[in-house]
TrEMBL record:
Stored Pfam families: Semialdhyde_dh, Semialdhyde_dhC
Protein family (similarity comment): Belongs to the aspartate-semialdehyde dehydrogenase family.
Naturally occurring in which organism (per UniProt): Enterocloster alcoholdehydrogenati
Gene3D superfamilies: Dihydrodipicolinate Reductase, domain 2, NAD(P)-binding Rossmann-like Domain
Presence of keyword NADP: yes
Protein name (Swiss-Prot/TrEMBL): Aspartate-semialdehyde dehydrogenase
Keywords: NADP, Oxidoreductase
Taxonomic superkingdom: Bacteria
Domain Semialdehyde dehydrogenase NAD-binding intervals: 6-138
Length: 361
């Protein structure tokens, strides 16, 4: 890309906004030129607005420290200086829907980390290795919005990243019944142990709305476009429990699967390690070279050892074995704020830029 696209980050002071900032430092295609947040942060420099709340392990990039935070609600003003925006705003679902559509209607593409538009029928919800063809619904969305270049695209929930790619790799064996329990890091709630000391040595067996997302969103990813909208797949049937555990980063899933077609353990592992998609073929900057790794050790994957595989953009799988009730069971691990949040959205934006959906204004 000859000239970097100008990026705005909506909700730039929160944890996912900070992850966007850190991932986009020195990005070869994108440059953060605008940061926007709530009115209480507006007018301060980014460094002042975030203050002691910087939650990333790496230092705040010098390039953003002196950017003056804009009011995210001043849509026209924010949109005027950028080619597209990443959205990580902390608002109600209805407010998020409204503000993301408002940005799209200024002819500014919106790549969102939020859940608000995940079930809007003409908004693509994409893991680029799995269902990039869903971006083809964008022209129908533009027609509804009355835009030429403005649209909304979203990435799915962080909880499904540790098992949906695995089940996709095994598609030819027709998984039809799945039981998953996810063990989810506190950063998924935008927290660190400093913010949430009561999580140390604790486990909470409930995360609001997470089980429905974990059961239903994979079906939308595996769906198809029909009459200008995305129709979700009917199978496999997924049931899920979601637990919050005392881990900073990394969602782990313990999964049981039934298949219609018989597969050997060797076949299943081969499908995992050979699985790749268009991001790998296109050599997108954030695409992991190895999307899924399989680990033979009985005690892997582990959060402390494996969460940063492929800079947090890869999936780690282990403990694949035959089960007494189901056909197979396995453990999956993904980085919830990289692949599962900001990194997944950056990869979506790279794909959209590579295919001409996002261009300089």
């Amino acid at each position: 890309m000859e000239k970097k696209l100008r990026v705005g980050i909506l909700g730039a002071t929160g944890m996912v906004g900070q992850r966007f900032i850190s991932l986009l430092e020195n990005h070869p295609w994108f440059e953060v030129v605008t940061v926007a947040a709530s009115p209480r942060s507006a007018g301060k420099t980014y460094e002042e607005a975030v203050g002691s709340r910087w939650k990333m392990a790496t230092p705040m990039p010098e390039a953003v420290k002196q950017l003056v935070v804009m009011n995210v609600n001043e849509v026209e003003k924010v949109a005027a200086g950028v080619d597209f925006v990443f959205s990580a705003v902390d608002m109600t679902k209805d407010e998020i829907k409204a503000i993301e559509e408002a940005y799209a209607k200024t002819e500014t593409p919106v790549v969102s980390n939020n859940s608000a538009h995940r079930w809007t029928p003409d908004v693509p919800m994409v893991i680029p290795e799995i269902n990039p063809e869903h971006f083809e619904v964008i022209p129908y969305q533009k027609k509804r919005l009355g835009t030429k270049r403005g649209f909304i695209a979203v990435k799915p929930n962080c909880s499904i990243q540790s098992y949906a790619p695995v089940l996709t790799a095994w598609k030819e064996f027709e998984p039809y019944e799945v039981v998953a329990t996810t063990y989810q890091a506190i950063s998924g709630a935008g927290k660190t142990f400093k913010d949430w000391p009561e999580m140390e040595g604790n486990l909470i067996p409930y995360i609001g709305g997470e089980e429905e997302k974990s059961e239903q969103e994979p079906l939308r990813i595996w769906g198809h476009i029909e009459n200008g909208v995305i129709v979700k797949a009917e199978a496999p049937l997924i049931t899920c429990q979601c637990l919050r555990v005392p881990v900073l980063n990394g969602h782990t899933a313990a999964v049981f699967v039934r298949f219609k077609k018989k597969a050997s353990r060797e076949q299943l592992i081969d499908k995992l390690v050979s699985f790749k998609g268009l991001p790998q073929e296109l050599g997108l900057p954030s695409a992991p070279k190895q999307f899924i790794q399989y680990m033979e050790e009985d005690n892997r994957p582990q959060v402390s050892l494996d969460v940063d595989f492929e800079h947090g953009m890869g999936i780690s799988v282990g403990r694949l074995r035959e089960d007494t009730l189901y056909d197979y069971k396995f453990v999956g691990l993904s980085h919830n704020t990289v692949r599962g949040a900001a990194g997944g959205a950056v990869l979506c934006a790279e794909f959209l830029a590579a295919k001409g959906y996002i261009e300089a204004k």
